[in-house]
Write a structure and sequence with these properties.
Largest sheet: 2 strands, parallel
Oligomer: single chain
Structural class: mainly alpha
Number of helices: 4
Number of strands: 2
Number of domains: 2
Amino acid sequence: MDLILRHLAGRSLLVVLDNCEHVIGQAAALADTLLGAVPGLRLIATSREPLGVPGEVLAPVGGLAAAAAVELFVDRARAVQPGFAADGHTLLSSRTCVAGWTGFPWPSSSPRPASAR
């Protein structure tokens, strides 16, 4: 940590911590340490729950609509299988697969289709 703090000292910069909910305690401790030691630091953290650090400002993100979830699924399927066809059968399967995604608060760093932006 000392090496990181020395590297950041005197700088004005933005640090992004993504998916903090998986390590909320450690992310909160890191954020608190960095913010306390580096005055020019600004921090953005993505998480499904607050870090609970002083000065934290919450900005809830809306969920992903069903049509956008299917579009994202098809886009990702084509990324790994370029010939993936979005026909009646695959779209029905895609809708079934993403049914639990509707309303899911996608982090800003996740690839999202244009209709969901």
